[in-house]
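Format notes (please read before filing issues)

Several people have asked whether sequences and structure tokens are stored in separate files. They are not. Every record keeps both together, in the order shown below: the sequence lines, then the token lines. Line labels are part of the format and must not be stripped during preprocessing.
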Amino acid sequence: MDIFLQLLVSGVATGGVYALIALGFVLIYKATHIINFATGEFMMIGAYLCYTFLALSGIPIIPTFILVMLCAAVLGFLVERTILRHMLGQPVISIIMVTIGLSSILVGLTEIIWSSQFESFPPLFPRAPLDLGFVLVRSTLAYGFAISMAAVAVFALIFKYAKAGVAMRATAGDQMAAFSMGINVKTMFTFAWALGAIAAALGGVIVGNIGGISPVLGAVGLKIFPVVILGGLDSIGGAVVGGFIIGVLENLAGGYLDPHFGGGVKEVAPFVIMVLILLVKPHGLFGKEDIERL
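Then the structure lines:
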């Protein structure tokens, strides 16, 4: 039972971090209907920026987080304005290939600027594990979970109550209707990319603090894809639920099945769950099904 509780709590904490990164996918898709396969690389850039500001420049942690978010917003703005805006109206596969190409470009630029060496973060949080009474949780994971949930809550509040968030929801629901109501749809696209980049960058800082950083960190983005598909591409709540489900199942698979199969089950489990869910609910657990009337 102790092992089960340990795996369960660690899985929930991991799932919270997954949910924040998945939010980077969801915010962009919800407003623009574009699946950004460079989300993992946005996450990687955020981690490297944090390392640069914190370890190389000696900037305190709070200003570092603010600078990372500002730089991530600028990155999202530039990507949308210089690349994706010119792809409006193009076939979906073309846009997907552009984001895949963008991910490769960002990896290359990262290796040019920071090299391909593995780097470790300076300690952001106290090293002592968090004692919950019945289990111990690694401090990096516990604090990462707390930051992730706080960020998810802020993004959800912005999307629900802020004027720009309401405009984004209107744009996501019907772009033509939003345009007719005076909403600048293109500006909402830019805003969505900026928010999505911020969410991914914050997730990258947390993941980098847990396991260090290198140019392959962006591969975590593909690992998050089952979370997004499971919860529903256009559902913020689904990203959170999907993150918890994948985080817990991944940890349980690693704890109980990996020893019997020689490893590898933990990495495969999220994709198996994704396929099984899609067989029953093609739009994910909370995804909105589009109905076309003829």
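For reference, the curators noted about this record: The first strand starts at residue 130 and ends at 131. Residues 15-218 form one domain.
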